[in-house]
């Protein structure tokens, strides 16, 4: 591995089939790129694949069809219990920063492996995470997604693959927004979308093919244009938590590509669905 602590870990483009209803890069495919970046970084450090425990992601600039991108990665922290990688996704055409990720992996590092990781550690300059209170129970949550794990969705560590988890959370997001009137029809008729600017994504348990999954979701913040949602994915058979996602975003004016205030009637209905932390 070169002395430069930053390593290019992915290079590619936004394919047309990876664009969502907002006409920009789908969040699940961001996670696919970051999965590739983590594998590349672990390989460069001489480490085997390791399960993701946590990802803190900030989306700062959107990517559209055909945009070129690359990811550079570094070590943020290394300790006896795991490794934290930092990823930066950049627009390859102009070098603009689009996304930052703090990626925590559960891996037992020997003293020698820890020293090797520390040799490639650098200062992380991305926005700090804000820790917010969360509901302790699922009272007031809505059933928003339900299906079974497909064989190809289980990664090498026995966890649900990052993009597979996010695809479910994206579907869940749509059902919760529709619960207060921000339906697909409303969005199409008013040229509106929902654009995410932050993920706090966690994983707790492994999965196997055919495990039945359910996602339950609740609104935890409603602002002028901003909305925060907490999604909880569990094994419906055992009740064990598989993954959680705190998702923050804004209603998007699809023509201006800027946040747009929620209509008063929609905001009033959304406030009635708030679940306190």
Walk me through the structure:
The termini are far apart. The longest helix is centred in the N-terminal third of the chain and has 18 residues, at 27-44. The radius of gyration is 19 Å and the shape is globular. The protein has helices at 27-44, 111-118, 162-178, 184-190, 264-271; strands at 7-13, 52-59, 68-79, 82-91, 97-106, 142-148, 192-203, 212-222, 226-235, 241-253, 258-259. The protein is of the alpha+beta class. 21% of the residues lie in helices and 37% in strands. The mean pLDDT is 96. The relative contact order is 0.15. The protein has five helices and eleven strands, in the order E-H-E-E-E-E-H-E-H-H-E-E-E-E-E-H.
What's the SSE blueprint?
Elements: E1 7-13, H1 27-44, E2 52-59, E3 68-79, E4 82-91, E5 97-106, H2 111-118, E6 142-148, H3 162-178, H4 184-190, E7 192-203, E8 212-222, E9 226-235, E10 241-253, E11 258-259, H5 264-271
Antiparallel strand pairs: 1-3, 2-5, 2-7, 3-4, 4-5, 6-8, 7-10, 8-9, 9-10, 10-11
Helix pairs in contact: 1-3
